Automatic annotation (TrEMBL):
Subcellular location: Cytoplasm, Cytoskeleton
Gene name as annotated: rmdn1
Family affiliation: Belongs to the RMDN family.
MF-aspect GO terms: microtubule binding
Xref: Pfam families: RMD1-3
GO cellular component, one term: mitochondrion
Keyword check for Repeat: yes
Major localisation: cytoplasm
Protein's name according to its UniProt entry: Regulator of microtubule dynamics protein 1
Keyword terms of this UniProt record: Cytoplasm, Cytoskeleton, Repeat, TPR repeat
InterPro entries for this protein: RMD1-3_a_helical_rpt, TPR-like_helical_dom_sf
Subunit description: Interacts with microtubules.
Length: 303
């Protein structure tokens, strides 16, 4: 592939829109370094041996073709993965990405963490398999962070997966991890302020601590000298910011806006957002659950 064609291909990919907040996912291509990993394959940029001028040019052409081929393969897998994610094809997505579980590429690993988590949430997955997938998701997210600390999506999904594992390790561990989770969410937003899902999840963190039951507050006080606290107003600010960044990007954000306004006793706005959540097209099992919860809450409000 000629250099200009390659550039157009990458530019077109990075600028192409996608549904369900797939865009701006932190795609990073290899930089010039001594070791470049592309799709789990290593291309070592070593010092060149003495070559004739013609031999040197032949070496460069062969080397560039190898790297471009690896880039093409990585690009193709990422494009296919993001397409499957946008279509809600969770099982097919997981089957595709699990082939790259030993990759050194953070772009594959965080997507695999997300796919494993999404698969664990599907209604037909048995409890023991859900637990297994939750721990695998955390493992992949951890590896993604190790490979690229500057990848905002790796921070985001590490935070989410760490929270999920807490469900299996008890409330003390879950609360104990809360500051770690918040730190990674804030780092994700720092790296990419336009990622609506990171902002939403931080809002969810605030909402969870705002409604923390008294006995869990006691547990938090035992763990921390200054236990984590938050308010519904703080949660609302994050949910609204997420909607401002990417309107109508996620059914759960619409639901949480409705629930937060309910907690703030603003029934008119609660009904507005709950209706939006109920009318959101159901692409995934989570969307269907959101639809049901929103419908139930609307009945309660109109009661």
């Amino acid at each position: 592939m000629a250099g200009s064609t390659m550039l157009r291909s990458v530019t077109r990919f990075l600028s192409s829109p996608a549904k369900n907040n797939v865009r701006n996912k932190g795609i990073s291509w290899p930089s010039r370094s001594r070791k470049t990993t592309v799709g789990g394959k290593a291309a070592f940029l070593i010092a060149l041996p003495p070559l004739s001028y013609l031999g040197y040019n032949a070496y460069r052409r062969a080397h560039c073709l190898t790297v471009v081929h690896a880039l093409d393969e990585a690009e193709e897998v990422v494009e296919k993965a993001d397409y499957l994610y946008s279509c809600g094809e969770t099982e097919k997505l997981h089957q595709l990405l699990v082939q790259y579980k030993n990759s050194d590429d953070a772009e594959f690993l965080w997507r695999l963490a997300r796919a494993s988590r999404d698969l664990s949430l599907m209604s037909h997955i048995k409890p023991e398999e859900k637990k297994k997938l939750a721990y695998e998701a955390l493992e992949y997210a951890t590896k993604a962070l190790e490979k690229n600390e500057a990848c905002f999506a790796a921070h985001k999904w590490y935070a989410v997966c760490l929270s999920d594992v807490g469900d299996y390790e008890g409330i003390k561990v879950k609360i104990g991890n809360s500051y770690i989770i918040k730190d990674h969410l804030e780092r994700a937003i720092e790296l990419n302020p336009k990622d609506a899902t990171s902002i939403h999840i931080l809002g969810y963190w605030c909402f969870a601590f705002a409604e923390l039951p008294w006995y869990q507050r006691k547990v938090a006080a035992m763990i921390f000298a200054s236990p984590p606290t938050a308010t519904y107003e703080e949660a609302l600010a994050f949910f609204l910011k997420a909607e401002e960044v990417d309107p109508n990007f996620y059914s759960k954000n619409l639901l949480m806006l409705g629930k937060t306004y309910m907690m703030l006793k603003d029934q008119e706005k609660a009904i507005l957002w709950l209706r939006k959540a109920k009318d959101y097209p159901a692409h995934t099992d989570e969307d269907k659950q959101v639809h049901k919860e929103a419908a139930d809450l609307l009945k309660k409000l109109k009661g």
